[in-house]
Amino acid sequence: MSVTLADRLPDRSGKAGLRLWLKSSGYARRLLMGEAGDPWVSAPAYLAFFTQAHGLLRPDVAVIEVADLYRSWIARHPELVTEMAAKRRAAWPLRAMLEAEGPRRLLAEVVEAVAASLRGQAPVVLALPAPRQWLAEASAAVGRPAPDDGDAVEDAAMYLADLARAVSSLPVGGLLIEAGDGDLGDVEAWRPLANVARHYRWGLVLRHSGSGGRLNGEAADFDAVIAAVPPAAAGAGGRDIGPALWGDAPLSPLAAGEFYFAEVPPGSAPEAVLENLARLRA
User: Fold this and answer.
1) How much is the average pLDDT of 151-173?
2) Which fold has domain 5-281?
């Protein structure tokens, strides 16, 4: 069953929706598999990992960290790096990586398995690095500096959109783009990703983890924006309360159209995590 993230988001008119969005893959991986554990070796292995993590933390959104899948695949299949280095075009390393058949097939199997296990209880969201960030990471994998031109970023956004279309027949509910201050000037170049989300009626969410840049009118392009101070122009606001939550600071109540977001520090003690989540849910 496909559950659309957009239908689960609260809105400024006061409609109730999801309350807690957790980013917990690093913490869950260390806790359940150890520092060297890799849940991405197969879809059954990932499902076993996901089921344990989701049952332990009970977030309102099921997030699949797509970049982690590709990092694992490259570590286990170094021949892909050779293909990524085969051409000198600025965006070729990312294109070759994202078009590779093996990781695409694994992503499809993971999405299908996770959605089937959830049975409509939570939307399945694909988390993607902002195009400029993933472009730089793919270039670094083949020993090249990060491209610094707008055309390469636009190309990167098209390749990410093509990856999303490749799983469009599966029960995906939304896309999350994770961005820092240096990515906010590229929002218009992300149009291919926004078009894919709109076409398939997925939710489109931006997480801004930086501290200096600010979104203005561009926030209206997203169904939700996650930030320390979410912009009012966004359809819904994800209030990033991580520092306050893990620092035992007081938490202010949610306003209309808001939900809590927190990234669980990978090195956290399980008892402290569960205590703070109980405090938040109370």
Assistant:
1) 97
2) TIM Barrel (3.20.20)
Pairing mode of beta strands 20-23, 258-263: parallel
| Cβ–Cβ < 8 Å for 157, 190 | yes
Residue 192: the pLDDT is 96
- Terminal C-alpha separation, the chain: 30
SS3 readout for 192-225: HHHHHHHHCCCEEEEEECCCCCCCCHHHHHCCEE
3-state secondary structure of 126: strand
Do 252 and 231 touch, CB atoms closer than 8 A?
Answer: no
Domain map (residue ranges) of the chain: 5-281
Q: What's the pLDDT tens digit per position in 201-258?
A: 999 999 998 765 667 667 878 999 999 988 887 789 999 999 999 998 888 899 999 9
